[in-house]
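PROTOCOL LOG
Step 1. Enter all chains and additional molecules of the complex.
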Amino acid sequence: MIISDKIIETTIEIFTTMVMMEVSADGPLLVKSGTLCDTITGMIGLAGTHKGVLAIHIPHYVALAITSSFLGMDVEEINDDVRDAVGELANMLGGNIKNILSENGRDIELSLPSTVAGHEYDFSATTDVDLFILPFKTSAGNFMVELQLEK
Amino acid sequence: MGHNVLLVDDSSTMRKIVGRSLRQAGLEFDNIYEAADGLLALEVLEKESVDIVLSDINMPNMDGISFLREKANRAHMKEIPVFMISTETGDDIINEAKALGAVGAIKKPFTADMVSEILGPFLHK
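Step 2. Run joint prediction.
Step 3. Record the structure below.
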């Protein structure tokens, strides 16, 4: 199975089992994530036999809905709960992608997850990478999962 | 009779989710303690009576493997069972965790049913 299919499978599994939210792929791979507006990005680094970054870009209003569903309580602003939930989504995605890239996750180390949020920013690699940017849709809105892997 | 459980994860979201899954699984606990890393988990184990620990692996300050190693060196807490809850469920790291005393592992993402299936038999012994 190719990497993009695995990312879709993993994302759907995480959202269905942990976030309690239905999610589906929303079209083919994107060429770039573009300028991200009123968005929060959760990211985690991969090092070892595969080097890169796994990120999830979620518009603020979608992140509030996701965090509310994740925690089972209403969340109305981008706060520590939202940052922690989005970071944990990146962590779970990264951990599962690691196991896809390397047998049993062997020889790949994960960083700790981190988040960035803002009104307008670009998320781009500074080195030559293979890019997998997948759009997803939920009833609350859309988001993207992006994997950058060093060539 | 209920049990006391310690949840160790740097993500407050994940601690809440694990706690919710335990309740949904119908597992009885008198107290659910929380710690954000291995160092803080050791502090809880020094002060509280804990029957079972559920611990993440990838954490700041002291990760889950170092926590197991340190706990194994403290005679008064070395017998407290630890289940790992992590995305890190490759054979190598789980075998390392088991060699240091972990009794099982739950892979993220998980459902309440999976938690019940893995922990239920252990808690109802």
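Step 4. Note key features.
Chain A has a mean pLDDT of 94.
Chain A has one domain: 3-150.
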